[in-house]
Specification:
2 domains; 12 strands
Length: 313
């Protein structure tokens, strides 16, 4: 079904499914599992050390012979060193976020590495295409962690009107065959999935974190730290409720810092750390392998899309 898909052709993968590069979560075991299952696994470098990134790249290569990528946070002070490591280790593709990737684009292109930018607006998506980026992810506010203000449902068709020559990838709220199929119908060439892969056997977060995801309902997902200018979507727990109380006392609380919500694998006390997750956590009910997750999503989406074809005939 995806033989002529722009994204699978660009990245040489079986299915147009990208695993989100979640800092503190996405490492070699998860990335390799997703790549082995036919998607594209991503190492989330975040604010990690250069040594950690190089080790994770090497571990991923030991675990898979399939393409994989690195998510590069442009705010990282070590970004120049990260770029060198990525080039030296011949990583096939880089996803960028948290800043302007155009400064690294010439270096990556010279090394034959694809660059895909994650953006929160249609305007930025178009700007990326105009400046020679290889693909773009438009991420809606349904996603976990730091969020923008626009929804995936509106971002994708609006971006599709402007993006003509590169793959358009939808992110935010995608976790099953129905949401995958919906993104494709809206005009996406592929999807990026984060929260669903957190509830996988290969993901290295604590089991209590995984249980919090599969036990969550839509009403358990909330947003905190709006007044810092860096709102964060997560699952309600004692920490999030404490932050909300602080926000209620002071609309611009200096003591609420976004660093408190950096990605973390966490321990057994799930009330002590931020449970970053997207709205779709309310629809995730089982922990499965990455292979099972991808096959289920693709099979269900194909059935839906084939049924739609019958209805339209």
């Amino acid at each position: 079904m995806f033989e002529n898909n722009k994204l699978t052709k660009l990245l040489n993968i079986k299915y147009p499914i990208i695993q989100g590069g979640m800092a503190g979560v996405s490492e070699s075991i998860l990335a390799a599992a997703v790549s082995n299952a036919g998607g594209l696994g991503i190492i989330g470098s975040g604010f990690a050390s250069p040594k950690w990134l190089e080790e994770e790249i090497k571990k991923t290569k030991d675990l898979t012979d399939k393409p994989f990528g690195v998510n590069l946070l442009m705010q990282n002070p070590n970004v120049a060193e990260f770029v060198k490591i990525i080039i030296d280790n011949k990583v096939p593709v880089v996803f960028t976020g948290g800043g302007n990737p155009l400064q690294i684009l010439p270096h990556m292109k010279q090394a034959g590495i694809k660059v895909i930018a994650v953006v929160p607006t249609v305007r930025l998506a178009k700007k990326m295409e105009e400046n020679g980026i290889d693909g773009v992810v438009v991420e809606g506010m349904e996603s976990g962690g730091h969020i923008g203000e626009n929804s995936t449902f509106c971002l994708v068709p609006q971006a599709k009107e402007l993006i003509k020559n590169i793959p358009l990838i939808a992110a935010g709220g995608i976790y099953n065959g129905q949401t995958f199929a919906s993104a494709m119908v809206l005009g996406a060439d592929g999807v990026q999935i984060g929260t669903r892969f957190m509830a996988s056997t290969e993901c290295q977060i604590h089991e209590n974190y995984k249980k919090a995801i599969i036990n969550a309902t839509d009403e358990d997902i909330t947003v905190v730290a709006r007044f810092t200018g860096h709102p964060i979507r997560l699952i309600r727990n004692k920490l999030s409720e404490s932050v909300k109380k602080t926000e209620g006392k002071n609309p611009f609380p200096e003591e609420i810092k976004s660093e408190r919500f950096a990605g973390a694998k966490g321990g057994d006390n799930i009330d002590a750390f931020p449970l970053l997750a997207g709205i779709c956590a309310g629809g995730i009910n089982e922990i499965k392998s990455c292979k099972e997750i991808i096959e289920e999503i693709v099979n269900d989406a194909e059935k839906i899309l084939k049924e739609d074809e019958k209805i339209l005939q």
